User: Fold these one by one.
Assistant:
Number 1:
Amino acid sequence: MIKISVLGIKEGIGKTTISLALAKELSKEGRTLLVDKTPSCGLWRKIGLDGDFACQGQLCFLKLFKRPFRIEELDEDSIKSKLISAYKERWDYVVIDNFSCAVPENPIIGLDVDSLPIFVTDPFNVRVTLEYSERFFRKYGLIINLTQREYKINKEISKLFQISVSIPVTEENDVGLFLLPLIADLKGRKQTLYE
C-alpha cells in the first residue's frame, strides 16, 4: 500500500480538489482509498456522500470526523480506530486529504507518518510552504496550483522534491491531467513494491 498525504498551509488552494483528482486517477491503476481528515468534512461535502464510508468502483471514501466543524473529545480515538480498521483492507493506494497547517506532531496526522507528503500551494505562498515542509520527515512532492499557463517551477525549488508539478487555473475535471507525471511515479513505486 502506498499512502500519500496531501498537505498545505492555506485553505482554498485546492488540497481537496487535488486529493480527489489524484484518487480518481490512482483508482484507474488499483484499489484506492481517499481519506477525509478535515474537521470541516470538506471532501464529504464536496462529493455529497452519506455515512462514513462509500465506494464507487475501485475508489472508496472514508470520512473521519462525525459532523462538519465539530471536533469532539472522542474524535481522536474514533479516528484512530477507523484508520486502523480501514488500513487493514487491501489497498493499492491511500490518498489523505488533510486539514490546513497539519503537522506531524498532531496525533491524527502522526498516524500517517509513513506516507509520501505532497505539499500543495499557490504561486504566492511557495516560500512559506517550503518552510512548512521542513517540519516533515521527507519531501516527496510539490504541487503549485492555480498558476498561469506559462508558469515554470524554479529549478532550485524542484530539486528539493522528488517530483514537482504546476497546475494552471483550469476546470476541476481537468486537474487529473496535470497529475499524470505524479501518477506515473506512484505507479512505478507500486510496481517496485510488488516485485
Number 2:
Amino acid sequence: MAKSWLVTMREAGLRKDFGGADSNESRTNQKTKDKLHTKYWNENGRDCYEIYAKGLNIDNSQIRDYWQWTTSTRDGVEVAEAVKVKWLGVNGSFKTINLTYEVEYKVSFLLRTKSPTPSTSTSVGNMKQQKVNLTLTLPNGTNQENQLWLPETSEQWQEREAGHFKMTTEVVGEMKFAMWQQFDSWMGGLIIKGVLIKPR
C-alpha cells in the first residue's frame, strides 16, 4: 500500500520538483533552474541525482575576493573555488519523493583541492586535509553528523558523505544537507562540484 501511494504521488507530477536553495521562485522558473543545476540518471532501476554547486547555498560565493566560479574542463559544469575564506558554509535541500522506494541512499559532497590562488595582500593557507563538519537532516527530523578531512588530491573528485538513509514513506519530504567549518586564518583551494545522491 505504501509503495502504491508513493508511485501515485510521483505520477501527480511531484517527481519533477527537485527542490533546491531558493523556494521563492515561481514554479516555472524553479523547473528551469532544476534542469540547469541538477543532473538525473538511472542506475539499475534506481534514481540518482547530482545537485551542482550553482544549486547550493555557498556563503559569500557572490564575492569574488572569497570565491570564484569557473567551468570545469573535465565535466563542463560550473564549480565553486574558495579563493580565501575563514568561514566555510555550504547547504542545500532535496525532495526525497524523487528517489526510489526501499533503496538505501547516501548523500555526499563532491570535492577536490588545489594550491590556493596566490594573493598579493593576504597569506592564504591550503585547505587540503582540513577537517570539516557535515550534516544530513531528514524530513522525519533525524539528524546525522560527520567530521571528515577534505581531499588531499586535485586529480579526482572525491566524495565526503554527509549521511545515509533508506527511502521509505517515513522520510518523504525535504531533506537538508550542509558542510561548514570556522578556520583560524584565511584558507583557500577547495573546489566544490556539488552534492551526489545515489544508492549506497
Number 3:
Amino acid sequence: MKWAWFIAFLFIITGCGTGVNAPVELKGGDDSMETTDWLFDVVTEQSNGELIVTMAVTNNQEKDSSIDFSSGQKYEIVLLDQNGVIKYRYSEGKMFTMALVHETFAPSETKKYQETIQLEELEPGTYMMEVKFIVAAINGKANDSDTFMKQVEIEIK
C-alpha cells in the first residue's frame, strides 16, 4: 500500500511545475520571509561585473524537517527592469534532471544556495529580482505556500 501512495505522490509532483515562472508577490520591503516553521532569506552582492545571489533556507523548528523538489531545479531567479520586462531568467536555456530530490534539515539548520549572474548584458539601473525556491513538498505534504518566495529591489551599477 505504501508503494501505491509513493507512486501516486511521484506522479503528482512530477506533473506539477506549472506556475514556476509566475511573478512573485511583494511582501513588504523586508528581505526575509518568516513563518512558524521556516525562514527564507535572499542576500545579493555585486562584484567585478557579477551579481552573487545567496538564498538561505532555515528549519525554524525543534525537530528534523524535510523538503522535496520535483526536479534538479531548486530555485528560479528572475530580473525585471522598471517596465516589468524580464531581462534575466535563471532557467532560460538550461535543462534540469527530472528526479525527486529530498533534503532533510536538522533543527535550526540553515542551508545556503548560491547563484552568480553575469551582468555584462544588463544595463545599469534599478531592477526587481524575484526569487522562488521551488519546493514540491514539506515533510511529504504538498507545498502551496508563499514561504519560499522573495522579491528584492536591486541597483545594477
